[in-house]
Design goal:
This protein is of the alpha/beta class and 324 residues long. Helix content is 32%, strand content 30%. The protein is built from twelve helices and 15 strands. It has a six-stranded mixed β-sheet with strand order 6-7-8-3-9-10, sandwiched between helices. Strands 1, 2, 4, 5 and 15 form a five-stranded antiparallel β-sheet that branches. Helix 3 packs across helix 4. The longest helix has 16 residues. The two termini are 33 Å apart.
Length: 324
């Protein structure tokens, strides 16, 4: 499988106000396969935005290598075949949706009003294309962004927080569009905090923290390891202590006890012990590990060196660039 994005030992170093070098991106290795939807995840300050800026050629790495569509990051030829929708896209609000499309088409020297109309129709904005952007909802503006990102028929799409702040209906619309992009053979690189959405659409993910990859792989593999949730009533605290739930979580609310057990646990023995003690089983529910669970566990257990970056989006205020 060919790679749409590839980085090796990618590092971006800034200098903090105290003069200490800070690696906002630290020895980062990524491999994004052509035609997949790839989730790029991490807490605030993890280095996501800085990495995307390097891949787009907006800023340069201090060291290491980044290739996009087989070319060095920032290559003009590669730029013709990629698109980017930022988290907070800016439009001239006096323009209509159709005028916005014409403007972005002109940047690629494309004069095709029918193409602009077709793309707006694809994102369900046909009836609103002649309204000014100032009258668009956040969801409509996001759809305009997705429409303009298709102007150049890109092979690779960068989407930064594509569903942030959207209502459930808009979430569903954007999710379906992203899946369509994949079905057309495009590679989609998504940076997002909406982990439930990422889990629904992504093939593989990378979780970064303090500029380093701490998890990377196929979601089916990363989320392997089912758990069983047992809810019971009418049992004593002493019995709960004696249940011996290995690596499990026990919580009590009123007279209800919830046992969250890994698949390696003998939940049949636990159920028998509860019944023999006169307790009652309310529910037994098998649970798959969620991406949110993996994210929280990975970040909390990751090394957290002192003096690391606090927010890569505020780098201009907090640090200055160190050139190689």
């Amino acid at each position: 499988m060919s790679l749409a994005i590839e980085t090796h030992h990618l590092t971006k170093t800034y200098k903090s106000r105290g003069g200490k070098p800070v690696n906002v991106v630290d020895d980062l290795d990524l491999a994004v396969e052509t035609g997949e939807i790839y989730g790029f995840l991490g807490p605030n300050g993890a280095g996501k935005t800085t990495t995307i800026k390097i891949l787009l050629g907006i800023i340069h790495a201090t060291s290491g290598d980044a290739r996009v569509l087989g070319e060095p990051a920032g290559n003009v030829h590669a730029h013709k075949n990629l698109s980017y929708v930022p988290e907070r896209p800016y439009y001239y609000e006096h323009m209509t949706g159709f005028e916005v499309m014409q403007f972005y088409a002109s940047l690629f020297k494309i004069k095709d009003d029918d193409l602009c109309r077709r793309l707006l129709d694809r994102v369900d904005l046909t009836n609103d294309m002649h309204r000014p952007i100032s009258e668009y909802s956040k969801g409509m503006q996001q759809r305009v962004g997705l429409a303009q990102s298709l102007i150049n028929d890109p092979q690779l799409m960068f989407l930064d927080e594509p569903t942030a702040g959207l209502d459930p209906l808009a979430h569903k619309d954007v999710r379906e569009l992203i899946l369509q992009f994949k079905s057309e053979g495009r590679t989609v690189f998504i940076s997002s905090h909406e982990l439930s959405e990422v889990e629904r659409v992504c093939d593989r993910v990378a979780i970064i923290h303090r500029g380093k990859v701490i998890e990377q792989g196929h979601l089916s593999e990363l989320l392997a390891g089912a758990r069983t949730e047992i809810t019971a009533k009418g049992i004593t605290a002493d019995l709960v202590k004696g249940l011996n739930v290995p690596d499990g979580v026990v919580s009590t609310v009123g007279d209800t006890v919830l046992l969250d057990m890994p698949e390696s646990g003998d939940f049949n023995a636990v159920i028998d012990a509860i019944r023999q003690a006169g307790g009652s089983i309310i529910s037994v529910i098998p649970r798959r590990m969620r991406l949110e669970d993996l994210f929280v566990k990975s970040v909390r257990e990751a090394p957290d060196p002192a003096g690391g970056p606090t927010d890569d989006k505020q780098g201009d205020e907090e640090v200055t660039e160190v050139t190689a």
